[in-house]
Write a structure and sequence with these properties.
Order of helices and strands: EEHHEEEHEHEEE
Radius of gyration: 16 Å
Helix content: 25-40%
Shape: globular
Number of domains: 1
Largest sheet: 9 strands, mixed
Strand content: 25-35%
Structural class: alpha+beta
Distance between the termini: 27 Å
CATH class: Alpha Beta
Number of helices: 4
CATH topology: Aminopeptidase
Number of strands: 9
CATH architecture: 3-Layer(aba) Sandwich
């Protein structure tokens, strides 16, 4: 994929050489991973597993996980991207290194993901999250997502409550063509 750029960020496909930086910048940080639906990385091997998963997603679908880098210096800021269920519908999310919080970078990165989803002809983009993750809710709302009241699911948040299924909220954004719900 050609890198996707915003005024401050560059979104790129993860590569095996990124493992140590991903691990150190955000994937091993307990505070950063608190509300993630994936377990905090405890070793570089966990990060290498993520990179293998990422490569498999990119091989199967039109897009997959993306790294977020600062345009000015190339510093890794976090990750975002897509998890497709079929070509017209994908889940998205984002995680930022702690020193990147509170600067509007998640909103900027998600805006780039929405633009990419339009280019990929995704009809529905959705983002489930823990209801106590108020910062994530604000980012989604700033990018035009609205609450999907029909979404009723539970997920494990292994860094918050290991082994427990907790209620989840989901926001969605209808794009491009008519989606499964008959909306545009």
């Amino acid at each position: 994929m050609t890198p996707r750029e915003t005024s401050r960020l560059v979104l790129t496909t993860p590569a095996p050489a990124d493992a140590a930086e991903i691990f150190e910048r955000y994937a091993s940080d307990p505070e950063v991973t608190r509300f993630m639906a994936w377990p905090r990385h405890r070793s570089i091997a966990d990060t290498q597993d993520f990179l293998a998963f990422s490569a498999a997603e990119w091989a199967r679908w039109p897009a997959g996980p993306l790294l977020i880098r600062a345009r000015a210096d190339g510093r890794l800021v976090g990750s975002t991207g897509f998890a497709f269920s079929h070509p017209a519908e994908a889940m998205t999310g984002y995680v930022l290194a702690r020193d990147a919080w509170g600067q509007g970078l998640a909103t900027e990165a998600l805006g780039a993901v929405v633009d990419l989803a339009r280019d990929l002809k995704v009809a529905r983009l959705y983002a489930p999250f823990h209801p106590d993750n108020h910062a994530s809710r604000r980012v989604l709302e700033k990018c035009g997502f609205t609450r999907d009241a029909s979404y009723a699911a539970t997920h494990e948040f292994p860094n918050l409550a290991p082994g427990m299924l907790l209620g989840v909220e989901s926001y969605e954004l209808m794009l491009n063509a008519v989606g499964d719900r008959g909306q545009k």
